[in-house]
């Protein structure tokens, strides 16, 4: 079967995990019972033998059409064949236990012969389950977990594969479900399909009532991004994963393949800011509680990322039996970057806490204690080199953006004292803030070249510098920043999309090969245009960026402008956050970029 591209996929989810479904009706990625669990369907980064669940017409498909039901995460795929038309409705009802997938097949026109194929392989596509017949379907168990497969269609076994052959007829609905359970418990009976559909539909409709109708022509694409961010939230703890996938490559055939199924503090704070200003304060409160638990003990040991339950240990290893997406090996589980020192994270955290107060979120004594510890830690470590926002796997450096975010730590702490009466050492903090500013202007800005540089020892450019005016360090209309943005656009842009930094001969990040353009950075450049008064040009650029998502409105981490295809893990929270903020920047007078840096 032809291999799908990243943009061929949609997602469904239940706030515990998500499944990736191709336009051809195949679920090719599923981790149960949570985002970071071992996958039981892993065809996405392997082969058919590593697990998939496909429902499709037997005859050739003339046309594929997909859409989400409005303001939901319910995916509808329509197949048109010579014999007729049929739709498959996929969803995962958000419930507190037993994650489940429901697949409803409804005939539209004509009579279409259909086939269902299911290969379940636990432990990332390597373990064949113990299959037993049960009332209404099959039980598939391996180790600690199992799946209860049910259908109103007869299920058969063939060569360690479950199959079903049936017809899609107008007015009839065939149902399939898979429900996760602990292997030591009796497989649960499925809920009635229509009741489960109504539950999922109502959940998403009610959730989206909180989205303000303020985005004009961009309302629909913004709402899809907000739903996507909610889908990437682990409901029991409030943690927000960077992406639900692992090892989707930044370059086809390359080794830049990482596991993103964890909670990066930086990405989470970006996400929360986008949600807070759009009225979703409950997510902000839950994340704050998650952070306080994760940082419990000695807050100076704060990590840049955690497991979705707050786990600190995220060892990185490779699994050799998976070939990787389009043969891009290795496939990595875990992430060694969890042990890195990234100074900018502390600035993102302090800014998030500051925005909490500005948004009227209830004050927490515990959170102020954590903030004081962060300020004290950065006071002692701001002048040390780090691995930076992009998690460079090489020697530590004095990254300019890292220093700017250290400046943000003290800037926000001072504002919290001045504007909200918090008890702190504001005079001492002002002196440190001034010292950091002097250091940046002396070492991070190259007078001869006329722009800010990636780190103190290089002349390389870095797209993270586009965030300097967005956090209030410098005005976007300042000639220094204008020249920096222009240089980034000239040297890092390819067809209106922006790379993170220079690699190869002009830059070094400790890894071989190259990568695609980074979509979040591309939106940040648009934000700079807006703040510099180039609103018309910014809107044209933004409209072009929106065309890089798939027809469902989903975006990956990166994009290949040469082959016109998505790269990196998918969907990517940071990209959708950047999209939301830029949509507001180009449509509103008090944009996020202005709001974040105003008093």
Automatic annotation (TrEMBL):
<dbReference type="Pfam" id="PF19291">
    <property type="entry name" value="TREH_N"/>
</dbReference>
<comment type="pathway">
    <text>Glycan degradation; trehalose degradation; D-glucose from alpha,alpha-trehalose: step 1/1.</text>
</comment>
<keyword id="KW-0326">Glycosidase</keyword>
<feature type="domain" description="Trehalase-like N-terminal">
    <location>
        <begin position="6"/>
        <end position="149"/>
    </location>
</feature>
<comment type="similarity">
    <text>Belongs to the glycosyl hydrolase 15 family.</text>
</comment>
<dbReference type="InterPro" id="IPR008928">
    <property type="entry name" value="6-hairpin_glycosidase_sf"/>
</dbReference>
<dbReference type="InterPro" id="IPR045582">
    <property type="entry name" value="Trehalase-like_N"/>
</dbReference>
<dbReference type="InterPro" id="IPR012341">
    <property type="entry name" value="6hp_glycosidase-like_sf"/>
</dbReference>
<dbReference type="InterPro" id="IPR011613">
    <property type="entry name" value="GH15-like"/>
</dbReference>
<keyword id="KW-0119">Carbohydrate metabolism</keyword>
<dbReference type="Pfam" id="PF00723">
    <property type="entry name" value="Glyco_hydro_15"/>
</dbReference>
<feature type="domain" description="GH15-like">
    <location>
        <begin position="217"/>
        <end position="583"/>
    </location>
</feature>
<dbReference type="GO" id="GO:0005993">
    <property type="term" value="P:trehalose catabolic process"/>
</dbReference>
<dbReference type="GO" id="GO:0004555">
    <property type="term" value="F:alpha,alpha-trehalase activity"/>
</dbReference>
<keyword id="KW-0378">Hydrolase</keyword>
<protein>
    <recommendedName>
        <fullName>Trehalase</fullName>
        <ecNumber>3.2.1.28</ecNumber>
    </recommendedName>
</protein>
